[in-house]
Specification:
The structure is a single chain. By secondary structure, the chain is an all-beta fold. Strands 2, 4, 5, 6, 9, 10 and 11 form a seven-stranded mixed sheet that branches. It has a four-stranded antiparallel sheet with strand order 1-3-8-7, with no helix packed on it. A hairpin with a 4-residue loop joins strand 7 and strand 8. The N and C termini lie far apart (40 Å). The mean pLDDT is 96.
């Protein structure tokens, strides 16, 4: 069992930055692919980014590529999402999730989820 706790959400103006963190319980964090998803009001949850177990390989949705960076620190059981050049359309609840693999782009591939953290970007 893995428990995930996100932090770092908040309100920011367009063009600003936020860094989300997600800390996992347990000793097996490094064995999971980690991902970030988001869900805006009235929309389906969508993939944002993922990072493989070693932290070397990362993948991004086209909508955030070049603006967001996912990273992980296996020693701290933590995954991060650095969000720069934020846009109003980035407003959503952001969730981190853990996945045994190998598939990683759909929410159905993920086994454990955090409670979510709100990100609001104003124009």
């Amino acid at each position: 069992q893995v428990q995930l706790v996100e932090s770092g959400g908040g309100s920011v103006q367009a063009g600003g930055s936020l860094r989300l963190s997600c800390t996992a319980s347990g000793r097996t964090f490094s064995s999971y692919i980690m991902g970030w998803f988001r869900q805006a009001p009235g929309k389906e949850r969508e993939f944002v980014a993922s990072v493989q177990r070693s932290g070397i390989s990362t993948y991004y949705a086209d909508s955030v590529k070049g603006r967001f960076t996912i990273s992980r620190d296996n020693a701290k059981n933590t995954v991060y999402l650095q969000m720069n050049s934020l846009k109003p359309e980035d407003t959503a609840v952001y969730y981190c999730a853990a996945n045994r693999g190998p598939a990683f782009k759909l929410d159905i591939h993920y086994d454990y989820w955090g409670q979510g953290t709100q990100v609001t970007v104003s124009s």
